[in-house]
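Researcher: I'd like a structural prediction for the single chain below. Treat it as a standalone chain; there are no partners to consider.
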Amino acid sequence: MQKGIIELEEMEFYAYHGCFKEEQVVGNRFMVNIAIQVDVEKPSHSDNINDALNYVSVYELTRQEIQQNSHLVEHLTERILNAIHQKFDYVDWVKVKVSKMNPPMGGQMKAVSVTMQR
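Model: Treating it as a single chain, here is the predicted structure.
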């Protein structure tokens, strides 16, 4: 068995998450990074997409969760983590980081992020 970590980096979305009414109307940019540990032995030898984790499915699952509004980034991050574990029950470990870009903090800030793993 050969373990590998597959990473989907800096997926960018526009969504309407937040506690403030303005955030729910105007929206904001969100960046999502996902790392998934799986057995990569079979696909590394077969060179067959059917033996590998489907990155497009992970992206689409993430996009679907991003489209469902949440008040808290923590809630959104947990939903993405759960959705990946439910759809891909063979994964060993998943780490999800969701960043809200330029959050309304009353000052200049690049992002606020929540990272969860299981």
